[in-house]
């Protein structure tokens, strides 16, 4: 369904229904946002393994100083 088709349906709604339609759209956007966050959730085992690797990297000197790391991030996303 296209945006235009949805807009045409919304235009035909009686004014008392607009708040309910707006609330439902907010709910749909909220659900969509949650579904996008799900891939970010990981098990405790995966999290602990990543933390352990990071700790080992730091102890073995396989990391950058924090100012260099932030400079690299700034270059990449600025």
Annotate the secondary structure layout.
Blueprint: H1 3-11, H2 18-37, H3 44-59, H4 66-77
The major sheet is characterized as: none
Strand content: under 5%
In helices, the fraction of residues equals over 70%
Low-confidence stretches: none
Please state the overall shape, judged from the principal axes of the Cα atoms.
elongated
Order of helices and strands: HHHH
Tally of helical segments: 4
Compute the average pLDDT. 90
Secondary structure category:
mainly alpha
Question: Nearest-angstrom radius of gyration?
Answer: 23 Å
For the termini, the CA-CA separation is: 36 Å
Give the number of DSSP strands: 0
List keywords for this structure.
mainly alpha, 78 residues, elongated
What do these coordinates show?
- The chain has 78 residues and is an all-alpha fold.
- 73% of the residues lie in helices and 0% in strands.
- The chain has helices at residues 3-11, 18-37, 44-59, 66-77.
Summarize the structure.
It contains four helices and no strands.
